[in-house]
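quick one before i forget lol
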Amino acid sequence: MKVVVVGASSPIGTAIAERFAAADGSVVGISLEQAGVEALTADLTADCSVPQEATAAIEEAVGVLGGLDVLVPAAGVMPVATLQHTSDEQWRRALAGCLDTFAFTARAALSHLCAGAGGAIVAVSSVNGFLAAPWMAAYAAAKGGVDALVRQLALDYARRGVRVNAVAPGLVGGAQLPDAAGGYPRGQTITPAEVAEAVAFLASPASSGITGVVLPVDAGLSITSPATFARADLRARLDDQG
């Protein structure tokens, strides 16, 4: 499988690149800086929120790989501020890092994905696209845009054999974030490796009937009522394994 991971220098992007490489895939990473991932076939640098750089980077990656089966736009920028206190620069950086990067790399990759027997795009979105958290105005808007674009591309390219989906991670940290784990049904947050497994599934023939889906990878966070953790009696029921 020939894979391009955009944002391969992030913890999630690195885990995704390593997951595909471990399954005998050829993987090119594209990031703002060198990803430094040993498993990569090529480690490219580009600002893919700039249309020309995105196109040039995708073309170089396809040249290295000799084709393209899967595109994984995993880049993102997360300013932390209310809308009132979000600067113009922060707003534009969030939309550019999340939504523009997805749009421009997908636009450059689609002709290659349509050229073969069919390909897949699996974007990395966030639960912040459909769940509100304090001071996430720009990031929430950007990831919500990613989700909408996933559905649109899935429809527009379905008959060209291209499936388009996304994963929506919750808080990443696994057992390393004990203070946050109390709000998660299983008692810990998710890990980059768990996100990577979901991406690999959505890119594989095993998910051939799935397109236009934003799959939460959040250890059950998005299906759990806050009352579960706010009320002692409900929390006790959750903790009761009997």
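fyi Strands lie at 2-6, 26-31, 42-45, 70-73, 120-124, 163-169, 214-217.
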